[in-house]
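Page 37, continued from 36.
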């Protein structure tokens, strides 16, 4: 992690049964960390974890300093406390909130 700006997001995935003793699928999470589209080296790192706990982001980003573009999920917040990682709000997530306001309540703010 040598880039100054990283995008991060996590998404749930279904883990199929691994053995006969497991009765049903489980939920896991894929955490994605990506460089920006303007970076000479464009890359995405996928980190599979068994939960959405913020400890996974904290461990993955440990020692890294820079600007983290992410949603408002509280799991990322621990990295912002030191001041070494700067929170950059994701505009796609911000836009979604205004769109939801417009659709559900016909909010003039969202127009």
């Amino acid at each position: 992690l040598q880039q100054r700006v990283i995008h991060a997001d996590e998404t749930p995935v279904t883990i199929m049964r691994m053995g006969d003793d497991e009765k049903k699928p489980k939920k896991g999470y894929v955490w994605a960390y990506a460089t920006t589209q303007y970076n000479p080296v464009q890359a995405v790192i996928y980190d599979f974890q068994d939960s959405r706990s913020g400890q996974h982001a904290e461990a993955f980003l440990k020692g890294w300093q820079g600007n983290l573009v992410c949603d408002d999920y509280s799991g990322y917040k621990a990295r912002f406390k030191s001041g070494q990682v700067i929170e950059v709000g994701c505009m796609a997530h911000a836009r979604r909130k205004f769109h939801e306001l417009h659709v559900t309540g016909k909010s003039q703010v969202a127009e």
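The mean pLDDT is 88. Flag for discussion at group meeting. DSSP finds two helices and five strands in the chain.
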